Amino acid sequence: METVELDDRKQRILDALEREIARQAETDLDEIDLVALAVAVDAALGGDGVMPGGEIDDGKEPDELNAANDG
């Protein structure tokens, strides 16, 4: 396959796809998990990178929580 110059965004997407496919291949790659690929791309582009239904970690410790941010 011919190597082409990619802009930064496309390169981040390509890198995320390569990493995720390699990760999936380590376990069992009978089927590609497209949702996991989408989440990997989301994370590479600055999203939360959380699987649907997964818990989002806001980074707050229990002693930092109050009525305004405990939700």
Pick out its properties.
71 residues, mainly alpha
- How many separate helices? 2
Strand content: under 5%
What is the overall shape? flat
Q: What are the low-pLDDT stretches, counting only 5+ consecutive residues below 50?
A: none
Please give the number of β-strands.
0
The major β-sheet equals: none
Number of domains: 1
Can you summarize this structure?
By secondary structure, the protein is mostly helical. It is built from 2 helices and no strands.
Describe this structure in words.
By secondary structure, the chain is an all-alpha fold. The protein has one domain (1-50). It contains two helices and no strands. Helix 1 packs antiparallel against helix 2. The longest helix has 20 residues, at 8-27. The protein is flat and about 55 Å long. It starts with 7 loop residues before the first helix and ends in a 27-residue tail after the last helix. The mean pLDDT is 82.
